[in-house]
Amino acid sequence: MFIGHFAVGFAAKRFAPRTSLGWLLAAPMFLDLIWPLFVLAGLEVVRIDPGNTAFTPLDFVSYPWSHSLFMALVWAALLAGLYHRKTRYLPGSIAIGLGVASHWLLDFVSHGQDMPLAPGVATKVGLGLWNHVAATVAVEVAMLAVGVALYISATKAATRAGSLGFWAFLALLGFLYAGAAHGTPPPNVTILVVSALSAWLAVWWAAWFDRNRVPRGEHTG
After folding, report:
1. Domains held by the chain: number
2. Which structural domain range is residue 174 located in?
3. How far, CA to CA in Å, does 220 sit from each of 118, 206, 215, 216?
4. Is 120 inside any structural domain?
5. Is 106 a domain residue?
6. Does a structural domain hold residue 220?
7. Coil, helix or strand at residue 219
């Protein structure tokens, strides 16, 4: 999935209002944030393969260290533990742990049978939602709409940056998603990996506009 992961992060703000949206989005995106680093290191492999599924031209040949079920749970525990040590804020720690783990579940639904269970285990699984473009878009757009609605119900803009930054973020997200659904495949793996690394900027952007929003019910002065 793509915007489905963002939906989880937005929705989590309702459960953990004191946690920065940067953290809350980084959690469900985390496996995709570290995946290009493993590809660059030669530990994981992806191929450009137009027609691999109806929705994406990518063949995820091997990615057990970033995307296996076992490692997703390990990364969830590590990231939640790191956050809890830093903040001692339990709702945020829970949201981050569940957010990281949710990535594997959502990818299991959307990917073909390429989702590994653990490093060294040959069995791979996946329900293949990506084989149906209309269904994929419907599910992800619905998820994002619910996630954004929950975020808006939990926060309000305290400054123009909190409003304009938020809506500009959503507009860019929609533009990128439309490109992913209807665009041309990346010309090579290097371009793909560099593009994937740009997702770290989304985390920074979300943290920035979220700092300019406050929980609903608070006075903005």
Report:
1. 1
2. 3-215
3. 48, 20, 10, 10
4. yes
5. yes
6. no
7. coil
Please tell me what DSSP assigns to residue 159. S
pLDDT by residue, tens only, the chain of 221 residues: 899 999 999 999 999 999 999 999 999 999 999 999 999 999 999 999 998 899 999 999 999 999 999 999 999 999 999 999 999 999 999 999 999 999 999 999 999 999 999 999 999 999 999 999 999 999 999 999 999 999 999 999 999 999 999 999 999 999 989 887 776 888 999 999 999 999 999 999 999 999 999 998 754 44
Element containing residue 170 per DSSP (H, E): helix 160-182
Give the residue from 202, 144, 198, 147 showing the smallest Cα distance to 169. 202
* Residues paired with residue 125 on neighbouring β-strands, in sequence order: 115
Asked if 19 contacts 201 with a C-beta cutoff of 8 angstroms, the reply is no
Q: Which residue has the tokens 């949201």?
A: 95
Q: What pTM was computed for the model? A: 0.94
Does residue 31 contact residue 67 with C-beta atoms inside 8 Å? yes
What does the alpha-carbon distance between residue 143 and residue 200 come to, in Å, rounded to a whole number?
21
